[in-house]
Amino acid sequence: MPYNAKIKVTLRQSILDVQGKAVEHALKNLGYTTVDSARIGKYIEVGINETSLGEAERICNEICQKLLSNPVMENYTFELEQVN
Amino acid sequence: MADITAGVVVFPGSNCDHDTENALASFPGLRPVMLWHNDHDLQDADLIILPGGFSYGDYLRAGAIARFSPIMKEVIEFARKGYPVLGICNGFQVLLESGLLEGALSRNRDKKFICSGTSIRVENASTIFTSRYARHEVLSIPIAHGEGNYFAPPEVIGRLEEQNRIVFRYCDPQGMVTPESNPNGSVGNIAGIVNREGNVLGLMPHPERASELLLGSDDGRRLFESVFEYIVGRA
Predict the structure, then answer these.
(1) Which domain CATH number covers A41?
(2) Domains in chain B: ranges and CATH
(3) Overall pTM surpassing 0.90 (yes/no)
(4) Above 0.90 for ipTM, yes or no?
């Protein structure tokens, strides 16, 4: 059965996240005084037509490293779920 | 000047390709050819230029998808053989994504897309792209980008410094490299770098937009002249 990969790509902590900063300021301006940070990342879903979990994981790591994230400034995580 | 062919790669979303072609065509003996991203033929170009713009709409990350365009296979081989490759703005982003240059470009520090004149200082005037400039000469060349904030880990910056591979830094009109003259938050005010071999240059400012006085500056002209001189000398 094929897999659905749910991939999250986030900026490394050392990289200034200007979008996140803008959202953080907006939330504070709305009166949410306990909000002290916001970071924005990307959420990507990729369908992988593989029957083996190991192979689906391998492909997922490869596409994250090759295209979906830039290892110089981003991290990625993913979850794989089987689809019927 | 002998005949030189300069190939300008056109990605879907490139928008400085014709400005670049126009600037190139103003040099006698220079023949610009437009290279479609989906082709595999560099048409015997002596020099490849990746122009500015928004290849693939900057989807995912600027330059990330263009880097896998069919023609990039030939461009990367061309660069690895030591031929000159110049990436301007989005072209610089593509070169970083392709691994031909080190580091990455993220969103500008102040969140804004910046389109304005800038001063940059020539840090290394002995590259094939800068031989017609003097070291520490201040150039007036515009920038136009939203993701020009150069970043690389400290060990990479250290290596770039040590090997004299930082070619341009943002500065004030007097040539002082200051935090105030850094338009986008780039580490060390870096505006342009070369690879270790010195044949691949990437920079955020647009020399093609400073190629005749009618445009407000012709300081970008000598960048092209430097590399043409190198090509003629090598032939």
Answers:
(1) 3.30.1280.10
(2) 4-234 (3.40.50.880)
(3) yes
(4) no
